[in-house]
Design a protein that fits this description.
This protein has two helices and two strands; from the N terminus they run ββαα. It is α+β, with helices and mostly antiparallel strands. The protein is flat, with a radius of gyration of 19 Å.
Length: 108
């Protein structure tokens, strides 16, 4: 696959932690067809000044609720886009360092 390799971390870099993402795939009848697991980098743990432009800020729920209330009060129309997969499928032109999962046996 070539998506990652084990390397030494540079001195000026703090590797990011990761998290397991589990998914159960089902067939058209609702029966379990396969189990999938993916090790994902915790991008929310990086600092805005690290790794160039890969930082992705998110909104607080209170701010979103305020915007919705204001729009409702003023009779405005709101639009929403779900770009859940955009970060996962985007091209990254810089190196990102992350810690391996707990229990992963690193080669000597």
């Amino acid at each position: 696959m070539g998506t990652w390799k084990i390397v030494d971390t540079p001195r000026d870099c703090t590797p990011l932690p990761g998290v397991w993402s589990y998914r159960v795939k089902r067939d058209s009848d609702g029966n379990i067809s396969k189990y999938k697991a993916r090790w994902c980098v915790r991008g929310d743990m990086q600092m805005p000044w690290e790794y160039n432009n890969t930082y992705l800020p998110t909104s607080r729920f209170a701010a979103v609720r305020t915007i919705i209330a204001t729009a409702a009060q003023k009779g405005m129309e709101l639009h929403h886009w779900d770009i859940q997969g955009a970060f996962c499928t985007s091209d990254v032109d810089t190196e990102i360092y992350m810690r391996p999962p707990t229990g992963y046996a690193l080669p000597d």
